[in-house]
Amino acid sequence: MTEQKMGTHYVREICQTFRDVAEKVDFAKVKEQMVSIAADLEPLAKKLYFKTQKGTEDMEELAKEAESLGDKIATCKTEADAQDVFRPFHEKLGKIIKHVKTMKVRMT
Q1: Packing angle between helix 7-24 and helix 28-41, nearest 10 degrees?
Q2: Rounded Cα gap, residues 87 and 85, in angstroms
Q3: CA torsion sign, 54 to 55 to 58 to 61?
Q4: Fewest Cβ atoms nearer than 10 Å: which of 79, 87, 102, 108?
Q5: What gap in Å lies between CA 58 and CA 40, rounded to an integer?
């Protein structure tokens, strides 16, 4: 029987990918952003999956995109280029984090 991944697994994979890539990045600001977003996102993994109805699909898509992030950043010559590569992830995950932190759960 194969194990099906849930949204929480993908969130943790993304966080680990960011930490792994951050170790190899030569640009301080990008490294700081990657570690920061991973630190903010990981504690919210369970809430994120619970509060977003399609958490698994969203996180699966982001995890696939994050896999190629290290290679893309490695080809960057300047910190500005590296930030341009990381900015879409930072914006998407920033919105998700804000949504999860501010969302209220209604009991019906």
Answers
A1: 160
A2: 6
A3: negative
A4: 108
A5: 17
- Render the burial of 64-73: b for 16+ CB within 10 Å, e for the rest: eebeebbeeb
Tokens for 15? 């966080």
- DSSP per-residue codes, 55-87: HHHHHHHHHHHHHTHHHHHHT-SSHHHHHHHHH
Backbone angles phi, psi at 57, to 5 degrees: -65, -45
For residue 61, give every residue at least 6 positions away whose Cβ sits within 8 Å of its Cβ, in sequence order, or none.
none
6-56 pLDDT tens trace = 777 888 888 999 999 999 888 999 999 999 999 988 888 777 655 445 566
Q: Which phi and psi angles does 93 have, rounded to 5°?
A: -70, -35
